[in-house]
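Thread: Newbie trying to understand structure tokens

Hi all, I'm a second-year student working on a class project, and my supervisor (Dr. K.) asked me to get a predicted structure for one chain before our next meeting. I've only ever worked with sequences, so writing a 3D structure as a token string is new to me. If someone could post the tokens and maybe explain what I'm looking at, I'd be very grateful. Here's the chain:
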Amino acid sequence: MTLSRRIILQGAGSLPFALASLRTRALAQAAPAAQSAEMPPILFVHGNGDYDALWMTTLWRMESNGVARDRMMAINFTDPLARSDDKVEQANRSSTEDQRRELAAAIAELKRRTGAARVALVGSSRGGYAIRNVIKNGGTADVSHAVLCGTPNHGVFATDDQPNSEFNGRGVFLRGLNEGESEVTPGTAFLTLRSDGMDKYAQADGRFIGKPGTSTGVTVEGPELKGATNLVLGALDHREVAFHPRAFREIYKFLAGREPARIAIQPEQSVRLSGLVTGTPGGVPTNRPVAGATVDIFRVDADTGERKGGAVHSAKTGADGRWGPAQVEPSWSLEFVLTAPDAPTTHIYRSPFPRSSDVVHLRAARPLGPADKDAAAVVIMSRPRGYFGLPRDVVLLDGKEPADVKPGVPTDSATTLRLPASEVGRQVVAQFGEERIVARVWPASENRIAIAELTY
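---
Reply by user tm_fold:
Sure, no problem. This is what the structure looks like when written as tokens:
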């Protein structure tokens, strides 16, 4: 029997971000000691085209509740984007079997590292497919808990065409996972988290998959599974059901068997950052390392985006694509300047990092294209851990609601501002909820793009 309960979340786009002003008080509060005997080691699994960096805020919240960082791991699939046909090879794309194999290896590594007999798996979107696949095909002895966040368990569509698409609810892959009276594998505890109508991949109309007016054959209940605990998290979008503080609470409760002591991220006194530079060969996002990229980090004024002195860190990536570690303060707003082969010089502006992280991954902006030909400067506002919902959220770029963000069901995670030559050199404010990032405008004639990348 499916166990379901409805949770309605109000103000989904709002979250306190004034970490600097809270720093003194927060640092005086020690993180609670986790009862590690109750909490299994956790392996986080990202979704289609994504990377492990999306779990950064979740890792911070776990750490703020006393979960040791070495008892957590986030997989970075080599080729995160799915094939069009699961049975046909495509360059820099992965099959369901590719993902199952990589996830199985990561489970074995986390078990080796921690000495634990079983681990918990937490997946976003397509990541839930890999989790279900590895459990069903021999992994139940290794996995105590499985949390599937926004996973389209009955397909993004369910039709008789494209039988080899892993996203087809009537296709070979999902029929294999969903066959039987129960849709979960005995021996592992399953939790699904879904939206109450705001998930663009759980919609009856095909307009979000390029087929407006055509029935998809799925509903908002598509992520639920017979035999699982199924929770509805209100008006959260497809990504927020994994990365929002509301989702963190349910993930923690399910794994630990108790409420988290705190939801807020507790700042550290000293912060070390490092990460990976990845590329998009042929326009396909991958997690393959980029060698020979230069990463320069500057402390910037939070109100103007102006640099405060020279670079606080400079590095050139080797064959492993790694940069860092960089030592920063938890109150600093930062500008990352990424110069990578065959890509625009990308100026990435970020809110202060309250805690250390080794998954501060950098990927160069997309090339300047025909849509940018009349612009002297391009500024992108990006929200990797969620979408922009209008009128649900406060979304302002340069003081205006972006015209390229579609209202209704949140669909867009990036918005672009194009400016004339007279605007080069000034500041642009990117605002989402209570998170505010100030970026500088760089000349497109020098093949430069600015990105205001939201953390929350």
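A couple of things are worth pointing out once you decode it. The chain has seven helices and 22 strands. The first helix runs from residue 23 to 27. Feel free to ask follow-ups in this thread.
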